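debug: dumping io for the single-chain case to check the tokenizer round-trip. Nothing else runs in this session.
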Amino acid sequence: MVRGRICRLLVRDVRFPTSLGGHGSDAMHTDPDYSAAYVVLETDAEDGLKGYGLTFTLGKGTEVVVCAVNALAHHVLNKDLRDIVGDFRGFYRQLTSDGQLRWIGPEKGVVHLATAALLNAVWDLWAKQEGKPLWKLLVDMDPRELLSCIDFRYITDVLTEEEAYEILQKGQVGKKEREGQMLMHGYPAYTTSCAWLGYSDDTLKQLCTEALKDGWTRFKVKVGADLQDDIRRCRLIRNMIGPEKTLMMDANQRWDVPEAVEWMSKLAEFKPLWIEEPTSPDDILGHAAISEALVPLGIGIATGEQCHNRVIFKQLLQAKALQFLQIDSCRLGSVNENLSVLLMAKKFEIPVCPHAGGVGLCELVQHLIIFDFISISASLENRMCEYVNHLHEHFRYPVVIKKASYMPPKDAGYSTEMKEESVKKHQYPHGEVWKKLLAAQEN
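debug: decoded output
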């Protein structure tokens, strides 16, 4: 039973100094500190449940997202949770169409990241009140109720609400069996943790060896900074994992369109399944041109982690610009907008392989992709979810990986809640960890 008026909203700037170990480093983001604008919602309900939400950042700039959350807070405070979820589409539109704040979006950039953090907290609270993990809340929802959470504005030329309803109705067939399959075997994952660009060859070898022992069969390597270095590292990793295992590459937006085609032609010998983010995430026609050139070489295009919103995804699908679609739980407008993208991907029969490289992203996106399999896609062909082995120890309900698969979360909520001790220690700039680091930098 949904209950309670939201009476308190707290947002904090939480940063982890991952740049010190080169974790998360790629051709474009050489020194990321995995961070989050972390939101807590409290209600006046007697159950004492809180909603936790976050959006992912790379360190500097988190304070700007925190500002944007505070600027949006008046849309959430003093609202009854029942009213929010009873007209979730209306509430989503209220947040994303604020007559003044919309000017610094619309539905993109900092203001959209802030929207995601707030809405992620609302979904966490709703799932907790229903006593279900978020994936199960979505799976059990009546198709009409599910669709009432989605804003279809700007995408009806590609997907109408009626078409979306038909997709969900078809997804009812075999749903129980697929849920059983997930609970038994989990959702297949791939690892990015072995081959960050800032890692030495020795570290790469050591991490690859460990991953192979742990049963990983799908690996992603960062490329794009130096061609000869890429050739050497890709050869090293391909030799280690052997010809049968799956290898993906990720350039993190480093190249121009012709450069992407030329560079990947030289890396084709290592048989990558895809090249991820070969160019600017906004360049739909550029992705389409790269796709046209590389698909004959057996290389697909993957993108999505920095796609602003459902409109960009719509155009990527229309332009046949990608073979693998990568949703992100914190870049888009939370669960609501991700649902619309999952449904569009199903209509175009493009596999969804979520992005999860960042703090908390694995915890969140596992819910969306498990729901996608059970209720929408009904397929595991060419599908897998990213996994990085960083910072899970800071979460109250960390991901569970077994045999290189995500096991469905059992705890109620969206798995967004961090340990309070971790939040306090890593709060920027006054947490214990940052006080020490900033003092050391001054000296």
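debug: round-trip ok. DSSP finds 17 helices and twelve strands in the chain.
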